[in-house]
């Protein structure tokens, strides 16, 4: 599997807009982010340029408008970041992570029920 580009938290906000609305114009990305954040249009445009340079976004010029599409799949990026988090903070041990969340009361009863359900489904499918 090819390594995905490193994306900052701010760049991730841009990517979420592109993943949701692609193909999407610079103007639409800028409008959505300036209404949801305190970023200036120039900041948003800088983040878009960085993502293009990193190979996370592709663009096509249609007359005077730039239209962006993702080159990175959202699911692949989220999986990579989740795996990286697990390795960095829990040595890749998901049981240690879940134990920490349970012991610190960060999981509600409904969260625990949902996890039980997922584990039951996985066991029924023959998962390890």
Summarize the structure in short.
With 128 residues, this protein is mostly helical. The chain is built from six helices and three strands.
What does this structure look like?
The protein is mainly alpha-helical. The protein has two domains: 9-70, Winged helix-like DNA-binding domain superfamily/Winged helix DNA-binding domain (Arc Repressor Mutant, subunit A); 74-124, Penicillinase repressor fold (Orthogonal Bundle), CATH 1.10.4040. The chain contains six helices and three strands; from the N terminus they run αβααββααα. It has helices at residues 9-21, 26-36, 41-54, 74-90, 94-103, 109-124, and strands spanning 24-25, 57-62, 65-70. A three-stranded antiparallel sheet has the order 1-3-2. Strand 2 (57-62) and strand 3 form a beta hairpin. Helix 1 (9-21) packs across helix 3 and helix 2 (26-36) crosses helix 3 (41-54). The radius of gyration is 19 Å and the shape is elongated. The two termini are 23 Å apart. 13% of the residues are buried. Belongs to the BlaI transcriptional regulatory family. This is Penicillinase repressor. Pfam families: Penicillinase_R.
Topology:
Elements: H1 9-21, E1 24-25, H2 26-36, H3 41-54, E2 57-62, E3 65-70, H4 74-90, H5 94-103, H6 109-124
Antiparallel strand pairs: 1-3, 2-3
Helix pairs in contact: 1-3, 2-3
Question: Keyphrases for this structure?
Answer:
elongated, Penicillinase repressor fold, DNA binding, 2 domains, Arc Repressor Mutant, subunit A, single chain
